[in-house]
Structures are given as C-alpha cells and as structure tokens.
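Protocol step 4 of 6: structure prediction from sequence.
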Amino acid sequence: MQKRMGDCSFLKLKMLRKTDEFPKKQENDLINLTKQNYKCRLNIELHL
C-alpha cells in the first residue's frame, strides 16, 4: 500500500499546487520523497 501511495504522490502534488494552502516545505518534502522512487520520477516528468 505504501509503494502504491508513493506512485500516486505526483498527482497529489499537482492537485495541491493548484491551491495556495500547501506549505512550501511540505511540497519540497514530497518532491524529495518522489525523487527517491524512480517510477515516481518518471510519472512526475510525464505529467508536469
């Protein structure tokens, strides 16, 4: 379940970016987490 959530974090990041309620530090933490997962990195690059 955790890995699956990791694969989806790029979608969460994208949605949260559309609101101004997402703290910058949290965004950076999420980016760092997804960078640790190669699949997530590919997803981020494909969906930005």
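Step 5 (inspection) to follow. The mean pLDDT is 62.
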